[in-house]
Amino acid sequence: MKAAHLLFVGILLLGTAASAGERKNVEVKVNCPVSTLCMVSGSMAGAYNSSDSTQSIECVFQVNASSSGVYNYLRCDAKDSNGATGWCEVSGASQAYIDVIQELADTDVIQFSYNPADHRCVGLLVRKGSAQHPRGM
Predict the structure, then answer these.
(1) Gap between the Cα atoms of 68 and 40, Å rounded
(2) CA-CA distance, 32 to 114, in Å (whole number)?
(3) Cβ(120)–Cβ(32) under 8 Å?
(4) Res. 90: pLDDT tops 70
(5) CA atoms within 13 A of residue 77's CA, in its CB half-sphere
């Protein structure tokens, strides 16, 4: 009887731990209608945890120093499960862009928008929260 009671308590505890908190895997989505702003969203962890080997998303910040001064450059790239790609870039990125990119974690949801004619970033949003699965989950 004692063994059955312990087994019941063990199963109850496992069930509680497994369902604690909301969980979601934010996979990469590229939406680029003709002649309007393109929107890309997803997370590095979501791409890593996806069931395909196609998805990717990243943002890169680069600084170059030369005799003419310091030059910085920001670029975000993504590919969704259908192979659709999206990217945008900013030359001479503002400190706000720099701060957002430097704080990125693999579980953060990245969303960027751009004009498809010139691929210039017009928006960058990073969402942090408890629901995103960590990488490898």
Answers:
(1) 34
(2) 9
(3) no
(4) yes
(5) 6
